[in-house]
Amino acid sequence: MTEKPSNDDRLFEEAFDLVIRLQSDPANPVAGDLVKRWRARGPEYEAAWAEAAEIHGMAGKVLEDRRGAGPKEGISRRGFVLGGAGIAAALGAGALFGPGLVLRARADHITSTGEIRDIALSDGTKISLGPDSAMRSEISPAMRRVELLAGMAFFDVAASPDRPFQAVAGNLTATALRTAFDVSRDADRLALSVQRGSVEARMPDSPLAFGERLSAGDWLSLDGPGGALERGRRDPSQIASWREGVIVAERETVASLVARIARWQPGRVLIADPALGARQTSGVFDLANPIAAFEAVVQPHGGKVRQISRWLTVISPI
Questions:
Q1: Based on the number of CB atoms within 10 Å of its own CB, is 64 exposed (0-12), middle (13-18) or buried (19 or more)?
Q2: If exposure means fewest CB atoms within 10 Å of the residue's CB, which of 11, 43, 167, 248 is most exposed?
Q3: Could you tell me the end-to-end alpha-carbon distance of the chain, in angstroms, rounded to an integer?
């Protein structure tokens, strides 16, 4: 059974979200006022704020030290500390911050780090919602629609011939009748794979604009707006293998794979160098030890994993 986060953990999650928001747009009076009111709620809020701000600064110090060790190009300390929004986009908001304050307001279901939640919809569809993930659903006599707001989910769709089931992740829409499939969104990467039956994938302004039908064992992924569309096939038994504690990756960027593994790692995981994050990798990664999984992902590309504290892990070139 998944351990539920403590109140201290929850406060730290909120504080770190606010640190990033404020430092991404320091001149915004709304962000400043939000931080001020949040910190004034009590001493435990102020303590969480102080810890989050200190750890965020420590991450910049690691990068500063790395720059001093050699002439390698990389993101500057200022770019790292103040560029929280850019790093969030590179890693995926779900993995970097966990489902944040905005998602908590929008979602029907939301999970914490390492938590996999089984959800039964009123139409009989069964969903496994992955860690640090969020979704909302709309089931009515006329339609069946689920929006994956962050993270990953596996759908075992109940039969209902008059109501096709739609799963939406960003601009990607997967439409199915009676089937089982997996959808994920990590580091601006959208992925769809089919375990059973068939699914139509559609996305405007992309190679999927006119729709593409996937059958059991088919998978596809799209990296960012205008990014390359990857396709392939794998054993259907490997689809959504994260439910059994394993990730199977094929031609996936380091950034998206780290973002997915990070959903099992407490705290924040940051990739300091966008060039490292853009490298591609394949393999099978054990989620029982996320740090070892990170190392297996980045070491072939010259990357190093550093745990700054229990709250922060930084991945950078050696």
A1: middle
A2: 43
A3: 37
Strand boundaries in 224-311, DSSP class E: 229-233, 246-253, 268-271, 280-286, 303-309
What lies within 8 Å, CB to CB, of 56 at 6+ separation is 16, 19, 20, 23, 81, 84
Amino acid residing at 302: G
Query: CATH fold of 109-231, please?
Result: Jelly Rolls (2.60.120)
- The structure tokens listed for 183 are 């959808």
Q: What are the angstrom distances between the C-alpha of 237 and each of 244, 245, 255, 273?
A: 11, 13, 25, 34
- Summarised one tens digit per residue, pLDDT across range 136-190 is 999 998 899 999 999 999 999 999 888 999 999 999 999 998 899 999 998 889 9
d(CA 93, CA 185): 10
Residue 1 to residue 259: CA distance in whole angstroms? 23
DSSP secondary structure string for all residues of 169-200? ETTEEEEESS-EEEEEEETTEEEEEEEESEEE
In the chain, where does the domain assigned CATH 2.60.120.1440 lie?
A: 109-231
Q: Is the dihedral of CA 310, 314, 315, 318 positive or negative?
A: negative
pLDDT digit string (tens) for 19-45? Answer: 877 777 777 888 888 889 999 999 999
In whole angstroms, give the CA distance from residue 1 to residue 116: 9
Spell out the alpha helix ranges (H) of 43-186: 43-68, 77-82, 84-91, 93-97, 101-106
β pairing state of 172-176 and 165-169 = antiparallel
**Closest C-alpha among 135, 101, 77, 111 to residue 16:** 101
Phi, psi at residue 224, to the nearest 5°?
70, 165
For 230-250, the pLDDT digits (tens) are: 999 999 999 999 999 999 999
Q: Which sign does the torsion angle of CA 263, 265, 268, 271 carry?
A: negative
